[in-house]
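Researcher: Structure prediction, please.
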Amino acid sequence: MDRRIFLGILSGGLLAAPFAARAQPASGGYRVGILSNVPMSHPRGARLWGEFAQALRDLGYVEGRNLTIENLSSNGRYDRLPGLAAELIRDKVDVIVAPAAQNVIATKAASATIPIVMAGIGDPIGSGLVASLARPGGNVTGTSFLTSAMVSKQLEILTQIVPQARRLAVLVNPTNPGMGLLLEQAKAAVQGLGAQLQRIEARSSDELDAAFAAMTRERAGGLFVPLDGTFIVHLRQIVSLAASARVPALYGERGYVDAGGLACYGASAIESSRRAASYVDKILKGAKPADLPVERPTQFDLVINLKTAKALGLTVPQSLLARADQVIE
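Model: Predicted structure follows.
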């Protein structure tokens, strides 16, 4: 997101009480808020936030005893984020965890003081969320990755799977404020790979059929589906449409491959959830986000579904299979 846009949002935000020492929980224990895009009722939401809760239990925080977790989800509707962030602040949570840049931006706009933990977002410096990775400043810290390097790697893997493709499509949600930067990075990466990029758009489940029809008309040889909360909510529909169109697709989240998609590459969402819990623990024990360095992911998921590759008539290079964390046969 453009820094000026972020500052404009921030200037109209609500301010909460200053940081306070959190060495002892308030009556009823600590309160941790989660501002997510995928609800707990969704299998991916249940798994990721279940891992987060388990990591907190491993650190001695037990729901109903010394901890309350309040999980609010936009369900892929980014326009709901400011209201949900304000709701968490009204509920006087001690710390808020947010798994996407737009969620962190909405939360920081609502409070410049309540600690916010990023769970694996891209480019927090460019988004104006932190001053630097080593010394974040302000009330935001957590884990992050460089989106340009990630997008370049994802498209490189896609072209290794379909080396003959000269036109690659990218599925974009125009309501996601981070998609503009991602598109610029994807265009640069595709040009470097000697291909062309086709942008297809969908804001909701109802628009996915038209997006895939547009891709088919333009004869795209491959599809890239980046991380997006709306898309994850409808991942089974997207995987089904890709199969019907017989287009090889590379996804930014392994849930698609678990649902029958061809391949994925991205920072491990499970690792990000568990590492977010360690940040929460440090903050509840009195550490300030401004002093906690932003960490880069150490685990990445490269998962390839050979059953899907066979159905598409593809031969995945052995060099890529050897690098995969998991091969589904």
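Model: The two ends are 40 Å apart (CA to CA).
Researcher: Thanks, that helps.
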